[in-house]
Amino acid sequence: MDVGPTPHFAGVDARLHKLFVSNLAAGTLTVVSTRTGRRLATVHLGGTLHTVMVDQETGRVYVTDIQRGLLDVVDARTDAVLAEIPVGRLPHGLVVSQRRHVAWVSLVGQSQAVEVDLRTDRVLRRVPTGPNPWGVTLNSRTDRVYVADTGILPVPGGFRINPRGDSITEIDGRTGRVLATIPVGPHPWNVVADPRNHRVYAGVSGAAEVAVIQGRRVVARIPVGRTPHGLALAPHAPWLLVNNSGSNTTSVINTRTNRVVETVAVGRQPQGVAVDPRTGRAYVENQASATVTVLAPGRRP
To answer: Rounded to an integer, what distance in angstroms lies between the CA atom of residue 37 and that of residue 20?
Structure first.
């Protein structure tokens, strides 16, 4: 796929058969047909783009812009930029509640999670988290928000590491109240919630493992490759996909047994992984090789 120079994260519009890929350094969003693999458009947003989420009901694409402190809004059908919402310093992670029409954005530079009303494009509340949060996810059944307190702050020339970055913050999505701080291990980078089994999976980058959380405690630890980054759940099978950016692989985990069933070689420095909710096809964004690896649906890749 022709996806641009620094593909980082992506989102899929299942109705329009489109893949939206953020290019971290280029400030662009590449639009690709999931049917043909052809590039359809390039959306120029500017800044430094990170996480991409698609609201399947409204046809809106949301992108965090680290450099400009924005949540960008794009029309999935026309590829037009609809809004730029100021959210705060260094927005990274993003999750959208299609039921409540709100988004939660993690602010690495402010150690906060921000709730945004997607009907009015306004910030509703700011919730303190652990240090320098990156990933954020939502259990759509319980309306619980989980934020990865990574403890890694981007600075000119590299990163500043906070040793206290070792937990997941649980927030009540309805009230904004912090419910718990769950220790998981050094520098959890990303996190994903499975509403089917009420478990949360955190990629613990400093330990090369995935921590499985249930009932506010870690119930299992699954060894994966180096520096686990992007995570995604398959919609029609018990697979958790984990991108290991330090190993150039994707681990496939059986969520029933908490075991790695396959390790797939992908491109260099895989970052995000997006899954088509209809087909189950997964798209791995390989930042250093400027490619996207497509993993087959309905079975192990």
So the answer is: 12
